[in-house]
Amino acid sequence: MQYHRNGNDFSFQQFTQLANHATMDSLGEHLSKDEWLVYNTLPFILPFLTVPDVLHCRQVCTLWMRIVNDSTYWCAVTLRNYKLTLDKMTDFLQGFKTNHLKLVDCEYVDECTTSCFEILTHLKKLELSNCTSKLVETIAEGNPNLEVLRVSLIVCPSALKLDLSFVSKMPRLKQLTIYCHREVQHLKEMFTTLGNLEKLWLLRVTHIDFEDLPSSMNLDRYPQLQSLGLGHCTELPSTIVYFVKTFPNLRELCFEYCGSSKWDPVDIFNFLRELPSLRRLHLIEFNIKEGFDKGLKLCTNLEELTISPCCNRFFMGRFNGRIFEGVKNLKLKRFTWGFSATYMMHCKRIFEVADRVPFVSDADCLHGSLGGIESELKSWRLITLEDLQHELQELMKTCRVRVVKNYSPQDFF
């Protein structure tokens, strides 16, 4: 059940005041005469209303109040752009046994009182955006039964790192997705408690170093992990190869801001081909080095693929040419080609046209048809995103192709 703010801020003081004052008026008496109509229409309307509107529905009549009070509609609650008083909100939701709470871009009036989340004893899935690291760590202490935790845009002092040791306080956790702009610490300690984890994504973090992890990890320890997403891996592919092999049943893998000068595309794709369960691969803001197209053709085990090239203004054309050549013959079910907002901005600045991206093949460069960077830039073929999607769809007829602009890793959240 999703609720969105419609105009003014809505305090949870108003929330409880509205909830406790149901009235019976002439309209309510009229509507209650046909209970069948109300019971078969109102439940379909409620999910489209804001929180204040839903609570106002309680005031129409006792029949409407009974329908709105059905805990079925409060099992999953989404609040967007609200100014919240956390203790009042949690008190109300606890009465309806809410087990899935999603707070998107909300402002917390009493954020220092983060222990109020402990009241939500039925909570199993929590999703937060635009929150502080302090809030996340306190939630972990008060909600040991959480099974899913997704946190986006964690705000913390610039000098501090995000401490991942809080994960050890949630032994039942099955999914953990973190999207932040900070370096993480205590990664090794976190992995000592991941026996039940099925999905782990650490995106947009500024540094992940796996250099000392393989020696401390047991290959049989993490049989449940099926989805792994990593950002800014400093050791790719040398150490990361051994690290990923720790998870024998991995079906989904995401690398973000990886592909440094150390990695060889053919080597890494050869390794990915050897993962027996791998079906979905996401390469976000990736360095599309020479040999990428040849290596990608080796991944015949993949069913879904997402690629978002990094914005290198002098090699954008080559990167796109390598991606196109690598994917066009793959037998995929889904392929997403994403271009970030920064990427599209550079294209518009360089070529003075919107929604077009450049292409040039490695063969053209190798045969000397292009002389220098300036000449290469002038020789790039520009293609609209719509035409690119159409051209790929014609070549990959059994695959669902999507070409997306303003693509962000946060789209996974």
What would you note in describing this structure?
The protein is an alpha/beta fold. The chain has 16 helices and 19 strands. It has a 13-stranded parallel beta sheet. A two-stranded parallel ribbon has the order 3-5. Strands 8-10 form a two-stranded parallel ribbon. Mean pLDDT is 77; it is low at 1-12 and 366-375.
| Number of helical segments with 4 or more residues | 16
Major sheet attributes:
13 strands, parallel
Cα separation of the termini = 18 Å
Low-confidence stretches: 1-12, 366-375
Shape: globular
Q: What strand line-up does the widest sheet have? A: 1-2-4-6-7-9-11-12-13-14-15-16-19
Coarse structural class: alpha/beta
> Overall pLDDT, averaged?
77
Portion in beta strands: 15-25%
Count every beta strand, where a strand is a DSSP E run of 2 or more residues.
19
User: What is the share of helical residues?
Assistant: 25-40%
Rg is: 25 Å
